[in-house]
Amino acid sequence: xTCPYLAYRDASDDRRFDDERAYCTAxxxxxxxxxxDICNDRYSLEHDRHCEIFxxxxxxxxxRGRNRITVSRPERERGRGMSYAAFLxxxxxxxxxxxxxxxxxxxxxxxxxxxxxxxxxxxxxxxxAGASVVHVHARHQNGERTFETERFxxxxxxIRRHADDVIVQHSTGGTGVPDADRHLPLRxxxxxxxxxxxxxxxxxxxxxxxxxxxGLVDSLHEEMVDRGIKPELEVFxxxxxxxxxxxxxxxxxxxxxxxxLIFGPGTLSPPRPRNFLNAIDTxxxxxxxxxxxxxxxxxxxxxxxxxFGGHVxxxxxxxxxxxxxELAESNTQLVERVxxxxxxxxxxxxxxxxxxxxxxx
Length: 361
Known about the structure:
single chain; alpha/beta
């Protein structure tokens, strides 16, 4: 069964696509690829349970369209925080480009790459701009999510065809997806050099939670070890920092531990500088960290990551705008900007080969 308000269209009043995409006739807009899974009752998702729009319409309440999440302006920070001696040591900066993501698509920014060919060309462009790692999600031809090994394989083949030496990092994240499907991105030939590992629960929309149980975290980690894949530990909030320490108690992780600290709305750590300082101070000894700020927080938190000796992630997965009201032209534009910031601050950017040394790949 699918939602009665679901249609597939290739155009609206202000949008046109090459392929038909999921369209909500109740909200009168194209929907995000993750929402399309809800509309289609895929995996364990059901439109009458997990969609906040459907019950409003069914109850003859007016659908008011997009639910916007806002983050209050951080209060003025006081205090000095921790030392930035790590920045002064001069380690090269690893730039990760998150090219596509698994939530929004071309309905949010038409420049977001979705097909293997688009992702392959985007990977080559961000590598030339200074990125040494590309974070990869897979999509069907119409932009909807897929976790099929074959689609990741097609993307990896396209990246190798277009790019030079960039490190490929697959996502294993997937809200509402069976645990078995979360393993599929690890099974390409050859396997990716890196893969993400979400460290705990994460809320999505009004009725969904990506559970990321310890059992799933352990099973994904074990397969990564078996296949020689470096885990990138995704830390969405302070509780997940505890989970990083718990994972180290349960398993032996290859040095160095590599964690991405994520800041933004909802379940994420609130985007305040003092929270960033606390997070890096709470990481395991010897761990290296990557910095990710969602939306308008991408550039300021990337800058803090540079200053405190960490590494940075930018890209259209996490932020579709270049500045307020101006959509980003490409992932490359976002990479070029953070590379310029690093250069102004006197920090070199790591090549893929140097990034492999830093990360112990």
